[in-house]
């Protein structure tokens, strides 16, 4: 059975527990990732699926043999060095972590125990990387990215800059249109490559994946992570060099910078003291004494380096920088002016704040292009600052946010409050200030308090507030008239009570029509992709599937639809990532093969550090067995409805009988007061004593005890019957999976009963959530102006009069207004 990505991710993160607590995440990641690399390399080497060589004695099982060896750290170092030497052409300059470092791993006994635990974590069955054979399955590469993201999150502000969020990397890669790159001689370069995620995303967008990868990184340990990242993605020819890009660029030829087809970068924001002494007149002509970035802020130094590294007339690139580069003054103003006048900037994409692990400040992507500069009429700007979702302590771009940015960029058309093409003349009029808010007016979402309405109009709703919901009125032309009517010029009133707002929305003619049209559209789309879902077979390429589905879904739902089509797209993409992706990889590896298994409980770690082995679990009901591809619930619902009906009815009888037992103890508690504990065993023992004459009790008491005993007996018999039905159904379901489900049958059940039904429910739920949103907005508006100030003041007077009356009745002399 193929390894599931979700299962792999959780297992890998749990493996970090062996080191977590003994050192910072920025340190222990080096050890975890190196053992991960050895395990992956070893599994693939056994199946001859890697170009890298493993010397004898250096396979993962040889690392396992070192557990509890007092020299484990030293011996691991030796084996890693042997692997590096055997693959010197690929990883000869790879920096290896020191597994014998007492400062990080403790002295001999502690170090031995820690490293033994770490290796043991990678012995789990869930980490058998030889099980996945799909050609496009970057299982380990994706898992590496997952770990890097979590390491960055744990490392904190100062040490999380080695990782660029995958969502931002994808945006950069897609807006550069790297599908045009397809030759091995074409190059992609990152001067501050960190762990290499930007380079890999860029390469993934190319048509063939054969472009040459070049990267430079200041920190040698982080550069090692980048090299491992490349190897785990199957890229053995990437060149990752170590050094200070600004003061000592490593990719040079004949005293000049090498130039590349594409440059991507996420440099450290506002790097201080970036320039070495004497570097004001740059030998590579990136900057000059008259156009010199400030010593305390190296943002433009990196941008100038990227521009210089792009091939003349054809090179293009994208760089992530803080928003300040768009509008800061003095030296940066002059540099920005020069860059704009040279027509290097093709576009700017403003991103939400708090996306990056190193800083909460908002950033932007500056898109550069040296091709056809003389024909360029201006800069295309996108302000995507509001498109995100909270993800823990950080923000994250959703699939819909990524797609909207990329689609908008590709169309190059103005979108109100979101995107605009700005001509050079307007930029010059603004003195080369590129602040996006100067050119793109944000959507008015401010809640304005209308003083006149608050003072004079109970229930009067300002036209401004109604107009803020215009997107609903455009999609449903009669909805505004259904909900509101004119009160006085500039003000409206609600046509129904506040509690009936939802009902009024749901009953509106145009809303009903929109709902019916939407359901028809999503049904048509599901029908249109069903054939391609059924066409998925063994050895397919899952990554090529979801893109066309997403594009066709967006094309199906019109732009003026009441339900935002990008919201619907997001449901599809999320379900793909959570479920369908793993399903497709299972089919790609194993075909339409549904395998049952019993999930086993995990071992528990005791307070003294020892491990308590969990007892193996055996299945006694269908609820105890699992099939990842074809859920058991679908098979039961399809073939065993009658059996489940009988089980449900018997379960209800068991519950009812238990309720009767509880009622006796509760309603007739006086007959059980002498017992410390009431149970069937206790009561039967007492009844036996009564029968033998050793225990005396009146008839009523004995009758109650007998009634309790009979109910317990009845419940036991029912439970026995229920257990028998469960076992019978369990056997039938197992037999069905083993002998009664053909591949075509499994395929149809998965496609129709799992994928299609789930997607329809998700899509339909979008309309229900929209009704709730409109209801909330209309209700909040109505409540805001429900009462005038005079009315509220009168209510206060009335309440105070009532309080005074009650106080006077209690003997207190109180008059309103005396306090």
Fold topology:
Elements: H1 5-15, H2 25-46, H3 60-64, H4 72-86, H5 88-91, H6 102-105, H7 108-121, H8 139-155, H9 166-175, E1 187-190, H10 197-205, E2 212-217, H11 220-232, E3 239-242, E4 252-253, E5 256-257, E6 262-265, H12 299-309, E7 316-322, H13 331-341, E8 345-350, E9 363-369, E10 378-383, E11 389-391, E12 394-396, H14 399-411, E13 419-423, H15 424-429, H16 451-456, E14 461-462, H17 463-467, H18 470-475, H19 479-483, E15 484-488, E16 491-494, H20 501-507, H21 509-534, H22 546-556, H23 565-590, E17 604-605, E18 611-612, H24 632-639, H25 641-667, H26 680-692, H27 699-740, H28 743-784, H29 789-809
Helix pairs in contact: 1-8, 2-8, 2-11, 8-11, 9-10, 9-14, 14-23, 20-28, 21-22, 21-28, 22-23, 23-28, 25-27, 26-27
Task: Characterise this structure.
This protein is α/β, with parallel strands linked by helices and 819 residues long. The chain is built from 29 helices and 18 strands. The chain has a 9-stranded mixed beta sheet, sandwiched between helices. A 3-stranded antiparallel beta sheet has the order 14-16-15. Strands 4-5 form a two-stranded antiparallel ribbon. The model has no long low-confidence stretch (mean pLDDT 89).
Strand content bin = 5-15%
Per DSSP, the total helix count is: 29
> What quaternary form is this?
single chain
Read across the widest sheet, the strand sequence of neighbours is: 3-2-1-6-7-9-8-10-13
Shape: globular
Overall radius of gyration? 34 Å
Cα(first) to Cα(last) distance is: 78 Å
Class by helix and strand content?
alpha/beta
Q: Could you report the average pLDDT, rounded to the nearest whole number? A: 89
């Amino acid at each position: 059975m193929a390894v599931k990505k979700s299962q792999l991710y959780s297992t890998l993160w749990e493996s970090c527990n062996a080191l977590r607590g003994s050192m910072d995440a920025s340190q222990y990641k080096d050890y975890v990732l190196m053992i991960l690399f050895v395990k992956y390399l070893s599994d693939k080497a056994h199946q001859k699926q890697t170009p890298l060589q493993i010397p004898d004695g250096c396979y993962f099982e040889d690392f396992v043999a070192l557990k509890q060896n007092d020299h484990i750290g030293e011996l691991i170092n030796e084996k890693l060095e042997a692997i590096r030497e055997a693959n010197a052409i690929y990883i000869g300059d790879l920096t290896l972590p020191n597994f014998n470092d007492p400062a990080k791993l403790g002295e001999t006994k502690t170090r031995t125990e820690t490293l033994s635990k770490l290796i043991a974590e990678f012995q789990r069955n869930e980490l058998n990387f030889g099980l996945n054979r799909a050609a496009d399955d970057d299982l380990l590469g994706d898992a590496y990215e997952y770990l890097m993201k979590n390491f960055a999150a744990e490392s904190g502000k100062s040490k999380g800059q080695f990782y660029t969020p995958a969502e931002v990397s994808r945006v950069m890669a897609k807006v550069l249109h790297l599908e045009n790159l397809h030759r091995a001689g074409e190059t992609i370069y990152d001067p501050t490559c960190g762990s290499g995620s930007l380079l890999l995303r860029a390469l993934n967008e190319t048509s063939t994946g054969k472009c040459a990868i070049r990267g430079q990184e200041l920190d040698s340990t982080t550069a090692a992570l980048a090299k491992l990242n490349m190897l785990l993605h199957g890229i053995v020819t990437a060149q990752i060099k170590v050094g200070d890009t600004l003061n000592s660029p490593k990719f040079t030829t004949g005293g000049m910078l090498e130039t590349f087809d594409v440059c991507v970068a996420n440099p450290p924001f506002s790097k201080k003291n970036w320039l070495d002494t004497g570097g004001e007149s740059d030998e590579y002509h990136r900057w000059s004494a008259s156009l010199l970035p400030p010593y305390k802020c190296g943002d433009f130094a990196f941008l100038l380096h990227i521009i210089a590294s792009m091939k003349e007339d054809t090179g293009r690139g994208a760089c992530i920088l803080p928003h300040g580069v768009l509008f800061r003054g003095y030296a940066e103003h002059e540099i920005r002016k020069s860059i704009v006048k040279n027509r290097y900037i093709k576009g700017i994409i403003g991103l939400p704040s708090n996306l990056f692990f190193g800083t909460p400040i908002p950033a932007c992507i500056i898109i550069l292009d040296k091709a056809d500069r003389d024909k360029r009429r201006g800069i295309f700007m996108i302000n995507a600052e509001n498109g995100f979702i909270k993800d823990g302590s950080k923000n994250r771009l959703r699939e819909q946010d990524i797609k909207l940015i990329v689609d908008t960029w590709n169309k190059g058309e103005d979108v109100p409050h979101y995107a605009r093409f700005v001509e050079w003349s307007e930029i010059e009029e603004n003195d080369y200030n590129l602040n996006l808010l100067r050119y793109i007016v944000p959507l008015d979402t401010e809640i304005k308090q209308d003083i006149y309405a608050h003072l004079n109009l109970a229930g009067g709703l300002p036209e401004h507030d109604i107009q803020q919901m215009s997107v609903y009125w455009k999609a449903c032309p009669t909805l505004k008239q259904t909900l509101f009517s004119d009160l006085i010029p500039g003000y409206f009133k609600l046509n129904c009570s506040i509690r009936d707002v939802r009902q009024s929305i749901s009953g509106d003619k145009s809303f009903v029509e929109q709902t019916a049209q939407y359901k028809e559209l999503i049904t048509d789309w599901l029908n249109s992709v069903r054939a391609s879902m059924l066409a998925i077979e063994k050895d397919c390429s899952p990554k090529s599937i979801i893109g066309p589905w997403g594009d066709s879904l967006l094309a199906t739902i019109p732009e003026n639809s009441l339900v935002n089509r990008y919201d619907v797209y997001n449901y599809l993409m999320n379900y793909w990532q959570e479920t369908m992706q793993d399903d497709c990889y299972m089919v790609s590896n194993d075909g339409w093969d549904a395998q049952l298994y019993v999930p086993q409980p995990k071992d528990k770690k005791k307070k003294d550090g020892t491990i308590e082995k969990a007892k193996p679990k055996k299945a006694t009901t269908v609820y105890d067995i699992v099939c990842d591809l074809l859920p058991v619930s679908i098979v039961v619902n399809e073939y065993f409805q009658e059996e489940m009906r009988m089980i449900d009815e018997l379960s209800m009888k068991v519950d009812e009988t238990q309720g009767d037992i509880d009622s006796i103890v509760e309603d007739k508690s006086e007959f059980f007061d002498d017992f410390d504990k009431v149970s069937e065993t206790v009561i039967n023992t007492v009844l036996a004593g009564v029968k033998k004459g050793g225990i005396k009790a009146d008839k009523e008491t004995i009758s109650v005890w007998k009634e309790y005993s009979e109910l317990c007996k009845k419940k036991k018999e029912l439970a026995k019957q229920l257990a028998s039905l469960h076992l019978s159904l369990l056997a039938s379901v197992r037999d069905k999976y083993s002998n009664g489900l053909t591949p075509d049958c499994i395929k149809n059940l998965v496609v129709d009963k799992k994928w299609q039904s789930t997607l329809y429910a998700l899509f339909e739920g979008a309309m229900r959530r929209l009704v709730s949103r409109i209801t909330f907005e209309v209700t909040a508006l109505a409540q805001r102006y429900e009462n005038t100030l005079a009315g509220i003041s009168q209510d206060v007077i009335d309440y105070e009069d009532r309080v005074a009356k009650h106080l006077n009745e209690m003997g207190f002399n109180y008059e309103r207004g005396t306090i």
